[in-house]
Amino acid sequence: MKVAVEGCCHGELDKIFETIQFLEEKVNVKVDLLLCCGDFQAVRNEGDLKCMAVPPKYRQMQTFYKFIEGDKGALVLLVFYGGSKEICNHLQALPPRGWLLPVLFFAGYAGIVKFRGVRIGGLSGIFKSHDYRKGHHEYPPYNQQTVRSAYHVRNVEVFKLKQVKQSLDIFMSHDWPRSICHYGNKKQLLVKKKFLQQDVEDNTLGSPAASELLQHLQPTYWFSAHLHVKYAAVMQHQKQKDQEPRTTKFLALDKCLPHRDFLQILDIEHDPNASDHLEYDPEWLAILKATNELINVYPKQWNMPENNGLYAKWDYSANEEAIKEVIKTLGHDLSIPQNFCLTAPCYDPNNPQNSREPVHTINPQTTEFCALLDLTDLNAKVKQLEEEKGYEDLESSEEDSMGSGEERSDYDTSGLSVSLNPDEITLDDEEEEEDDTREDVTEDTSNYSTEQSSNSSFDFSDLRAPPASMVISSDDTSSSNNECGRSVESSFTEEEGRSPDEKSLKRLSNEKRPSLKIKRRNQDIYASRDEDED
Predict the structure, then answer these.
(1) How far apart are CA 190 and CA 205, in angstroms?
(2) How far is it, in rounded angstroms, from Cα 414 to Cα 406?
(3) Residues 6 or more apart in contact with residue 273 via CB below 8 angstroms
(4) pLDDT score of 269
(5) Residue 111 in contact with residue 284, Cβ under 8 Å?
(6) For the chain, which has fewer Cβ within 10 Å, the N-terminal or C-terminal residue?
(7) Rounded CA gap, 138 and 155, in Å?
(8) CATH assignment of 2-510?
């Protein structure tokens, strides 16, 4: 089947669909599924805009609300995992999964779904060590800390994914897995993104949590975004027991802008006898049931169970009996029900409500899903705590937790990336003097904020070396960045494989290149300090 993979959406859903429609007509193909690797930005109204970690002057309504109202139509089933610039209150109401439109599915903080027999897993958010071991405690209205921490990866989600035993076809993350840059053409990467050189050399580029999942899951494909650059790599894992060594084809894509490599269509093997509907994955649901006791809604640091003599149970993987029980609970029908419901009013351009504030809502989809499987509704639990303790008490609890940096951390905090990304801006831009030096920028650079390098004294130097369980291929060959492209039938956003008279198909747009002048700021992407920004 034809699967379109998109990098960062940034609210440009209409442009993405326009591009897919153009490609379908131009080369006579039909896209069966669209996968988005984060920064989706599903804005319904003015209140939603206040739940996205960008300065107010960069908040834009975009066109998602038009799809809800039916003014625009979605062309194909879309599945996405969250990134680092999302509408937190919208996605927070669907922590395990849920529909944002009748054909637009958010797969949750972490999860696995199936489409035509293809298992698609993923992890939402980005890695920040100071929030990694906390519970999901954030709720609207957010403050300057929680509007960022709401999209930070938590150890409980990674722990759940590490319980997966069955093979995955596709895995998606916003962050790149750490060390993956060493399996592609690093020279070409650094030509495009010079500011990454130090992190590449130090092997601090990317998420250590995602790298751990890459080693454990070893999916056939891994798709990412976040760094706003196209990059392909091929990783061959070491042979395990009597099995042949698996290979993972990695592909990162750019953000949706003209003349950028933000979309690629792949030919993915599937089961022709499998359902055309999006389906639950029985193993994943069994894991959710098994790990339900690990739900935490407090900002205190906490650890996942491990085999170190301190925990009575540390293996939460799903056995055959548990999987069969889930299938029985679902009535042997794995189809995900089409139960989309609108839980917030849509933006009305004829009657703007700029004073609208975000409201902490419970989504009936989550209520129904959790009741079916006897799971705890994470968002409802947070709301209950909010009502019982009051906002000020929760704020105090969070502030108390900020001093826990000396507790044991799962990953290195001293070896995180300190790259300076000229494409990024900070949430503090509003406070800068207007007469600062400015540059013409022909792309939207409003989607990330800063995190600075950590002052933590932890020494996890081993995480800055490529994992021993991975076999590193030649990283500087001229062909390495095209390996993933060769493995598919159609690639519409890259130069290779096209005749000289074909034009690069990056984004269909009749708009003029924007001439907005904004401050170009140096940013960190993967650093960590408690006062930092994302």
Answers:
(1) 12
(2) 12
(3) 117
(4) 97
(5) yes
(6) N
(7) 16
(8) 3.60.21.10
